[in-house]
């Protein structure tokens, strides 16, 4: 049974909808994701084949969750996947139509950067003024907007780099993340038989988090449903937070135009959060001007006020968070995995980690530099990639001198250059070089270098030969032994134990992974790891979850902390001065707050070590945009909103510009309590005079900047 009794009438209407396009447009925690899962179960109940159903989610973790829910509800396998994994699947089948081989490698951000760096070098462009980073961003943006290198921009350098980079990828028979969408769309645009194939493949397509689709994903969705038109999308425009990756929340607002005849369902009951949290978040988001107005209510009671904590520095902030975690789990019987700490930038995690470690609280980081991006793991995975590819340049460059084989940078450069000029895959070219010493006068190998190259080639050959008879984890063990990889790690004894542990874990994971698959292949293993690396956290014991606000999408926790609620950090520096980006930051705050079921804390510090030095911080405007009645102050110092006397429109924070009738303009330096109530220390006359003013008498006004 699809547990229909657990759905409200609007949810039920969405679940029972069968044919034609439908959009569920609803706020956070209203059951959108749940409706997607139930609808899949419903479709199966009425006799639709699981293989005719495709569900697209935003992260691999969400996809896994959806698959397992369907499995437990209906004992059926449906394809639940991210857009990127879906692209990879389609391209594995059909990319030969675009002139690639279907055993392509998938390059992660790090590989992509290396390849692009090589391109800039070859084009004799120096990485001045962050050219590399800029090109990376611009290429990604072009691909997400579905613009290939043949479309000329106004910047000839960009055009040249983009075209060169794309050629290099093809030579390596590799795709970057954006290609997984870009090339899939290209395939469907250019090839009629592919188009026919894939518009017939799935009869029902369901898409979660539709507000964060970019142009390529939007086009892909349109192709997939072009024939049967059974698209079912759910989303919340207020939670669109990926415009920097090309997401366009207009896609969701244009749904009815793009899919004529679409029915729209709205959901207005929130099943996640207490009213305190929900209303506070609702109030915050009303500050955005471009939005689709929705109402949300919850019957989960009033709940506790949102705790505000202002501290002197990051360490204190983290100590407070840890203290509150321990107190709350004790008083309310909450498990560690019901607790999350969110932050705006990855760099903030360190201090929280230290504080958690010192109290021995288990934690896991979701996103950030993940397990699969660690050096030792990437080294081994690169070796494995060499077992299936002759042309994977980045994996070749990574492994050729592990262990040291005496092939220096200049020689390598020559080898790479000549293999490209002769259009011979890099590994094949190395084989030729060893077999025919006179093949290439441009590359002069000394005896030692030739030996080194030979030993590398024979190692790869040996592993390739062994591969069919070994289990995946055995192949990994064999690769480590045959390459004397542990000796190589000994060069850095300090990190040796850590790295060994990680390698053991990789072997364990491979064994587990293989166990769970019917027909496991090395290629599939590598693909899944690369695609998953972005969001996965490891979890063996119930752990506190740490992640950026961006990674918190779709998740929910009983107890949530958002750290670093400070101007220039959140909202982020880059968004100031741009109203659209500022609204996106506010949506991000809305996403973060609405993850909380019962307890929410917003914390900030006055000093923070940032951009290479200590900085004086001011509380985030978002703190002030939440009406004081939803907040309680847990700080020993400064910030006070709750007890601002009635009639006083709002309390001020340190750094706020205020106006006093008699003294003129000033800046708040401190706020504290005296027997008169809330009191401020305000600096007037450009810093020459400081006055102590009792809030309820001084009648300070906000000085608009
Ligand atoms: P978000 O916008 O954050 O992605 P969402 O709209 O996808 O949220 P869900 O995650 O599907 O919301 O649901 C939020 C919570 O409410 C989940 O714990 C879900 O199980 C629960 N829920 C949803 N609908 C119902 C219902 N009808 N009865 C009981 N619980 C429900
Ligand atoms: Mg959801």
What does this entry look like structurally?
This protein is of the alpha/beta class and 705 residues long. 44% of the residues lie in helices and 16% in strands. The strands form six sheets. It has a seven-stranded parallel beta sheet with strand order 13-14-12-15-16-11-19. A six-stranded parallel beta sheet has the order 3-2-6-7-1-8. A hairpin with a 2-residue loop joins β21 (664-674) and β22 (677-684). α5 (109-122) packs across α6, α13 (275-285) packs antiparallel against α25 (579-593) and α16 (375-386) crosses α17. Mean pLDDT is 89; it is low at 638-649. Bound molecules: adenosine-5'-triphosphate and magnesium ion.
Short description:
The protein is of the alpha/beta class.
Distinct ligands, ions and cofactors found in the model: adenosine-5'-triphosphate, magnesium ion
Radius of gyration: 28 Å
**Helical proportion, percent range:** 40-55%
Counting DSSP E segments of at least 2 residues, the number of strands comes to 24
CATH architecture of the largest domain: 3-Layer(aba) Sandwich
Q: Give the CATH class of the largest domain.
A: Alpha Beta
CATH superfamily of the largest domain: P-loop containing nucleotide triphosphate hydrolases
Distance between the termini: 59 Å
* Main sheet characteristics: 7 strands, parallel
Low-confidence stretches: 638-649
Strand content: 15-25%
- Helix count? 27
How do the strands of the widest beta sheet line up side by side? 13-14-12-15-16-11-19
Which tags fit this structure?
705 residues, alpha/beta, Rossmann fold, Arc Repressor Mutant, subunit A, 5 domains, seven-stranded parallel sheet, six-stranded parallel sheet, 27 helices, 44% helix, binds adenosine-5'-triphosphate, binds magnesium ion
